[in-house]
Amino acid sequence: MELLGQLTVTGSLTDEEFDRRFQEISSYGDDHLICVIEDESSGKIAATGSVVIEKKFLRSCGKVGHIEDVVVDSEFRGKHLGKRVVEFLTDHSREMGCYKVILDCSVEKKVFYEKCGMLNRGIQMSKYFD
Amino acid sequence: MELLGQLTVTGSLTDEEFDRRFQEISSYGDDHLICVIEDESSGKIAATGSVVIEKKFLRSCGKVGHIEDVVVDSEFRGKHLGKRVVEFLTDHSREMGCYKVILDCSVEKKVFYEKCGMLNRGIQMSKYFD
């Protein structure tokens, strides 16, 4: 949660709420995977990212991997950990039979994701409720 | 499937494959909803769109609605059906407790989604496997 706080607002969370959400996500099995890279010496989580597998009817019942919440701890940047997280989630999506993997990011991150073999193919639109 | 073909490649699909995917999507309940607008007089599907609810840890175990595959049959365009589909999927996401709803589209669709109350907040990156 501390690491996710380097990406966006994490908000408050009780252990019970965390456990419940953990169980919910776990119940999706390989359809919702969270990748974590741990620094063995300090036990700190150095990088994380997740992927949600969406099942469609189009493309002969194709699947799409949605990569979300990729972040590397400021202490561990410059070690290509972000690239390793994205590659892991991309490989998982391919193994799950997805025809593509997609993600949304800021324009500043475009060059990083191009290095991960991705191309800019559209824009993201969003509406916040709060 | 015919309508989805106006959006992208649908590919071939047996009835069995369709049924299996239908069951898979149905098993997610309110977490994966497909909205369909039917023209009562002809029985034709005039518009469709879907939303996948993603469960996160950040934002106090927040949820995000991912809107996908919005398309209006060429025969029924100009009747604001696309806006109704997006509004329905947005309302569903809000009711499910999402803090935001997002989607990816081409730059040409930006004005349409702005009319649906959305703002451009980033870019989409993707990698195709086939």
**Oligomerization status of the protein chains:** homodimer
The end-to-end span of chain A amounts to 21 Å
Structural class of chain A: alpha+beta
- Which strand-content bin applies to the residues of chain A? 35-45%
Can you give keywords for this protein?
homodimer, 130 residues, alpha+beta, 4-stranded mixed sheet, 4 helices, 28% helix, 35% strand, globular, transferase (chains A, B), acyltransferase (chains A, B)
Question: If you had to describe this structure to a student in words, what would you say it looks like?
Answer:
The structure is a homodimer of 130-residue chains. Chain A is of the alpha+beta class and 130 residues long. In chain A, 28% of the residues lie in helices and 35% in strands. Chain A contains four helices and five strands. The first copy, chain A, has helices at 15-26, 58-61, 81-95, 110-115; strands spanning 32-38, 45-55, 63-72, 98-105, 119-128. In chain A, strands 1-2-3-4 form a four-stranded mixed sheet, with helices on one face. In chain A, strand 3 (63-72), helix 3 (81-95) and strand 4 (98-105) form a beta-alpha-beta unit. The longest helix of chain A is centred in the C-terminal third of the chain and has 15 residues, at 81-95. The radius of gyration of chain A is 16 Å and the shape is globular. In chain A, 31% of the residues are buried. The model of chain A has no long low-confidence stretch (mean pLDDT 95). At the A-B interface, helix 1, strand 2, helix 2, strand 3 and helix 3 of A face helix 1, strand 2, helix 2, strand 3 and helix 3 of B. Strand 4 (98-105) of chain A pairs antiparallel with strand 5 (119-128) of chain B, so a sheet runs across the interface. Chains A, B: It catalyses: D-glucosamine 6-phosphate + acetyl-CoA = N-acetyl-D-glucosamine 6-phosphate + CoA + H(+). Chains A, B: InterPro entries: Acyl_CoA_acyltransferase, GNAT_dom, GNPNAT1-like. Chains A, B: This is Glucosamine 6-phosphate N-acetyltransferase. Chains A, B: Pathway: Nucleotide-sugar biosynthesis; UDP-N-acetyl-alpha-D-glucosamine biosynthesis; N-acetyl-alpha-D-glucosamine 1-phosphate from alpha-D-glucosamine 6-phosphate (route I): step 1/2. Chains A, B: Belongs to the acetyltransferase family. GNA1 subfamily.
